[in-house]
Amino acid sequence: MTGREAENYVAEHLSKLNFFVGDFNKGVSGQQPFDQIAISKDLILAYDVKHCKTNYFPFIRVEENQINALTYLTNMNNKILK
Q1: SS3 category, 69
Q2: How close are the terminal C-alpha atoms of the chain, in Å?
């Protein structure tokens, strides 16, 4: 399975659970913080799909732009909930 096939697999699974799934434009650099965003009535998921040959992904490989984007989203969520 390629990375794109893995993304399609996840998107199809989430759409069966009533999520709307959209892809981020990868552009030339591939430096977008997430591969896809999935939105349901009660939940928003922003995520990067990894195709792993094993059931292990070392989180040390999470990129700085992903950490920054997740931190921003977490902070925005905390402001909305207050």
Answers
A1: helix
A2: 43
Cβ(39)–Cβ(19) below 8 Å: yes
What is the Cα–Cα distance from 42 to 74, expressed in whole angstroms?
16
> Could you say which DSSP state residue 27 is in?
T
Query: Alpha-carbon distance 30 to 81, whole Å?
Result: 32
The CA-atom distances, in angstroms, between 24 and each of 3, 21, 32, 56 are 14, 10, 7, 24
Residues in the chain: 82
Per-residue pLDDT of the chain (82 residues), as tens digits, is: 788 898 999 999 999 999 999 988 776 566 778 889 999 998 888 888 888 888 888 888 888 888 888 888 888 876 665 5
User: What's the pTM?
Assistant: 0.74
Residue with tokens 């591939």: 30
